[in-house]
Specification:
By secondary structure, this protein is of the alpha/beta class. Helix content is about 35%, strand content about 10%. It has 12 helices and 10 strands. Strand 8, helix 7 and strand 9 form a beta-alpha-beta unit. Helix 3 (about 65-75) crosses helix 4 (about 100-115) and helix 9 (about 245-255) packs antiparallel against helix 12. The longest helix has 15 residues, at about 100-115. The protein is globular and about 50 Å long.
Length: about 325
């Protein structure tokens, strides 16, 4: 396995690789992925130094968790911390975020992953009111006391939700959308997390693939791909698809961003390197559907830090093309 920089994941007390492996793709919401190909992706990531997998109980209705569980049973030496999420399989009302449901959801994830104690469980973008509920955090603390979970965190849609969670002493990590097309977390969320000792997991790092520079206005995605059916938030929060940016705007901005890539690096690797070097980021979790993608994503961790001129160019691109296209609440 290739060594990779490790950073402490907030209040978990454990280190993870700066480039992790997101596994939403393995559930099938980006098009079909065969089991053998999924195992190939996970193995390529581990071989490239990845020690952090991120999944959720809703990815393929548990398929992603099950694949990870079977893979790690065969590779107990991998040293991977697995973060999963819970909550999106139920109706999205605050009343569902109670201890009995948490236990049931945990039981299912523990069975899927084949473990007694889950490394890290994150509330999966719940209703905003959940982040302010004392009862919710009491229930999460109970799960830790019962050794069902080792630590808990949250996945959020907005910066305000992130700041509310960071203020809670038991929250180990916050997962938030962060990429060169989504800069708002840099202003308050990352500094607050650093001050509190909370880990930051950067999700949707390539804006659903836009930042790879591979897509054009004529690109057609499969019907079962969320980039077809959720462009305007038809199925779930619009921010999960292309970072909430109009597709045409995103394609044009991505073409310009591609020009920022240093020699020998792809636009996708440049975007990942940009995220990794943001102060306060613990790990970035790009997805992959092939061995080649997994290896290329991990290789971004070995790139030299981007110069200030590139950081300035990213900010300028955001101000000119993206800011007006992003909803105010983000």
């Amino acid at each position: 396995m290739i060594p990779m920089e490790q950073r402490e994941l907030g209040r978990t007390g454990r280190d993870v690789s700066v480039a992790g492996q997101g596994t939403w793709q393995l559930g099938g919401d980006w098009g079909e992925v065969r089991e053998a190909d999924a195992f190939g992706v996970l193995d390529a990531a581990v071989g490239a130094g990845v020690t952090f997998f991120d999944t959720a109980d809703v990815y393929g209705d548990g398929r992603s968790e099950q694949l990870i569980g079977r893979y790690l049973k065969e590779r107990p030496d991998a040293g991977v911390l697995v973060a999963t999420k819970m909550g999106r399989r139920a109706d999205q009302v605050p009343e569902n975020y109670v201890l009995d449901n948490f236990r049931a959801w945990n039981d299912r994830s523990r069975a899927n992953l084949g473990v007694d104690t889950l490394d890290l469980v994150q509330l999966h973008c719940p209703p905003t009111a959940v982040f302010s509920s004392d009862e919710v955090y009491d229930a999460l603390d109970t799960l830790v006391a019962e050794q069902r979970i080792a630590a808990y965190g949250v996945s959020v849609e907005t910066c305000a939700e992130a700041l509310t969670a960071i203020a809670r002493p038991g929250v180990a990590s916050v997962q938030i959308i962060l990429n060169p097309f989504r800069l708002k977390p840099l202003d308050e969320v990352l500094p607050a997390a650093r001050a509190a000792g909370v880990g930051i997991i950067a999700r949707v790092p390539l804006a659903s693939g836009l930042l790879s520079g591979k897509y054009t206005a004529d690109t057609v995605f499969a019907p079962e791909d969320h980039r077809t059916y959720n462009r305007h938030g038809e199925a779930f929060d619009q921010g999960e698809t292309f970072s909430g940016i109009d597709y045409g705007t995103g394609v044009a901005a991505a073409a310009e961003f591609a020009g920022f890539a240093p020699e020998g690096a792809t636009p996708a690797q440049t975007a990942l390197r940009w995220i990794i070097q943001q102060p306060g980021v613990t790990s970035v979790i790009p997805g992959a559907r092939s061995v080649e993608q997994a290896r290329a994503n991990a290789a971004a961790a070995a790139l030299a830090p981007l110069p200030q001129s590139t950081l300035d160019a990213v900010r300028d691109l955001y101000d000119r093309r993206i800011r007006a296209a992003v909803h105010d609440r983000w």
